[in-house]
Design a protein that fits this description.
9% strand, three-stranded antiparallel β-sheet, 7 helices, Arc Repressor Mutant, subunit A, DNA-binding, 72% helix, mainly alpha, homodimer
Chain lengths: 146, 146
DNA sequence: CACGATTGAGTTGTGCACAACTCAATCGCA
DNA sequence: TGCGATTGAGTTGTGCACAACTCAATCGTG
C-alpha cells in the first residue's frame, strides 16, 4: 500500500514529461512551416502581445534564464524576426522588439492555435481545468525547489 | 470569444511545459546525491522493475528513441550502473542489465518518491486523476502527430 | 535459396534547459 | 562620494530530445 502510493508520483511525473514531449511533437509539425521551434514561438507570442520587452521580462514570463534565452534570441535575430538593443536608461538591460517580418509572421501563426486545440481532443472546459491544476502543481513544485 | 478560446491551448501547452520543467528542478535536487539525471533515473526504474531489457523495449516504455537512449546508456555504463551486451539470438538487439552497483542504488533511491510526493502537495486521489488526464491527452496528441 | 525490405543500435547535427561562471552597469549605504 | 554588493546579459559545458542518417542483422517473399 505504501509502495502503491509511492509509485504514483513517479507516474505523475512521467505522465507530465510524456505529455509535454507529445505536445512538442505536435507543435514541431505545425511550426515547421514557420521555421520556428516551440520555445521560439513562445517568445514571439509574448512579443506579439507586449510589443517589446527586456530579456529579463521575457525570462520571467516564460520561466527561462539568460542561458537559454540569449542563444535563442540570437537565432531569432539571425532569422530577421527580432531586434535587440541595449536599453538607454539601463545599459545592462537589452530590449527585444519585433521586426516587420516578426510582426508579419503573426498572421500566419494565427492558424496554429486551432490546429493544436483540435489535436488535444479536449473540450474547452477540460482545458481550463487541466491548465489550472498544472499551474497549481507548478507553484507547489517551485515552492519546494530551493 | 473565438480569440479567448484560441488562447487556451497555448496556455495548456505552456502550463504543461512549465510543470514539466518545475518537476525537473525538484528531481534535479533530489537526484544530485545519486549522481543521476531524471531520464537516467527513469531508465533505472524500468530496469529495477524488469531486471534486464533490450534497448528497444526501454525506448517503448519511456517513449525515447535510440538517438536519446544510446548516449544515455553509455553514460550509465561509464558510471558502472549498467552492462550492455549484444543479444545472442538477435545480434541487432542490445540487452541492458544492472550491475551490482546499479542494483544497490535502488535502496538509496527508495527515499526519493516520498520526497517528490511531498513536493507536489497533492493528495493521492488528485495525483491519480491528473495522471489519467495527462495519459489521455498524450494519447490524443500521439494520434494527431503523424 | 536469394535478395530486397525492414529492423535495431548507433552517429551526427541542431536546439533547448540549466548550472556555473564572467563582466560591466547600477545600486545602496556608510 | 566612493566602494562593495547586486543585477542583467552573455558564455561555457553537460545532458536531453529529436531528425536524419549509416550499417549490419534479420525477415519475408518470389
Amino acid at each position: 500500500m505504501s509502495t502503491e502510493y509511492l509509485r504514483l508520483d513517479q507516474q505523475i511525473c512521467f505522465a507530465l514529461h510524456a505529455a509535454s514531449r507529445a505536445f512538442g511533437n505536435v507543435y514541431r509539425v505545425v511550426l515547421r512551416d514557420l521555421g520556428l521551434t516551440y520555445p521560439q514561438y513562445l517568445v514571439l507570442l509574448v512579443l506579439w502581445e507586449h510589443g517589446e520587452l527586456p530579456v529579463k521580462r521575457i525570462g520571467e514570463l516564460l520561466r527561462l534564464d539568460s542561458g537559454t534565452l540569449s542563444p535563442l534570441l540570437k537565432r531569432l535575430e539571425t532569422a530577421g524576426l527580432v531586434d535587440r538593443r541595449r536599453s538607454a536608461d539601463d545599459e545592462r538591460s537589452v530590449t527585444v522588439s519585433l521586426t516587420e517580418a516578426g510582426l508579419a509572421l503573426r498572421e500566419r501563426a494565427e492558424l496554429i492555435p486551432r490546429r493544436i486545440a483540435e489535436a488535444t481532443g479536449l473540450p474547452p472546459a477540460d482545458v481550463v481545468e487541466l491548465r489550472d491544476r498544472l499551474a497549481r502543481l507548478t507553484a507547489a513544485l517551485d515552492a519546494a525547489a530551493p
